[in-house]
Amino acid sequence: MPADLDAQFAFLAEADRLKSVYRATTLHDGSRRENTAEHSWHVALYALVLAEQAAPGVNIDRVIRMLLLHDLVEIDTGDVPIHSANGAAHASLETQAAEQRAADRLFGLLPADQAQAFRALWDEFEANETPDARFAKSLDRLPPVMANLASGGGTWVEYAVTYEQLEARVGHKIARGAPGLWDWVQGKTKAWFSARP
Fold first, then answer.
1. Measured distance CA(75)–CA(20) in Å, rounded
2. CA distance 169 to 162
3. Do residues 78 and 20 touch, judged by C-beta distance below 8 A?
4. Does the 2-195 domain belong in CATH 1.10.3210.10?
5. Fewer CB atoms < 10 Å away: N or C end of the chain?
6. Residue 83's Cα: distance from chain center in Å?
7. Which spans are transmembrane here (predicted)?
8. Rounded CA gap, 164 and 190, in Å?
9. Phi–psi pair at 21, nearest 5 degrees
10. Torsion of the alpha carbons at 88, 93, 94 and 100, rounded to the nearest 10
11. What are the pLDDT tens digits along the chain (197 aa)?
12. pLDDT at residue 84, as a whole number
């Protein structure tokens, strides 16, 4: 038991570093950029609050666990804003390999059984093939959209994003796992982009 606790507390101490990884997305009030730990907590709360938007059979407890773990790799890799010039690089083989190495290192800090279970959830989220992962991935795209709407455009203005780019990079991903949410959000985003000078 003490050896397991040593490993678990080492993992938790390392996870604390996620609070120092800043993202492009600002808080809703636009006062500062959020950190990745705040994003992970907020998107897990999205899952809890918006659970009724999931497809039948989606296990919200598993979705919340995925969302709490999904961005831990950013401790090693940092965040690549989806609308930045390097946003397309996020899907590159090099980025994927770096994230795999980070997952190996971070989850490897845990006792073997817990490391295996957490890594399996992370891999499932990344593969985006199960109903749980599709819903989790859809939710992961929502908080930045809502923050940009609340803050007067946020990163959309910063990166000169068009509605077509938003739909291509974000919309289809939300719609895949949460079509009702995209229908609602799409109306809000179309209105914002239409009103923009």
1. 8
2. 11
3. no
4. yes
5. C
6. 14
7. none
8. 10
9. -100, 110
10. 110
11. 577 999 999 999 999 999 999 999 999 999 999 999 999 999 999 999 999 999 999 999 999 999 999 999 999 999 877 776 555 445 677 888 999 999 999 999 999 999 999 999 999 999 999 999 999 999 999 999 999 999 999 999 988 999 999 998 899 999 999 999 999 999 999 999 999 86
12. 60
Stated pTM of the model = 0.93
Residues 6 or more apart in contact with residue 170 via CB below 8 angstroms: 82, 141, 144, 145
* Alpha-helical regions (H) of the chain: 2-15, 36-49, 60-69, 74-77, 93-107, 112-127, 131-150, 154-158, 163-166, 172-177, 179-195
φ/ψ of 25, rounded to 5, equals -60, 135
- C-alpha of 17 from chain center: 17
pLDDT at 179: 95
Q: Are 14 and 115 in contact (CB under 8 A)?
A: no
The pLDDT assigned to 89 comes to 47
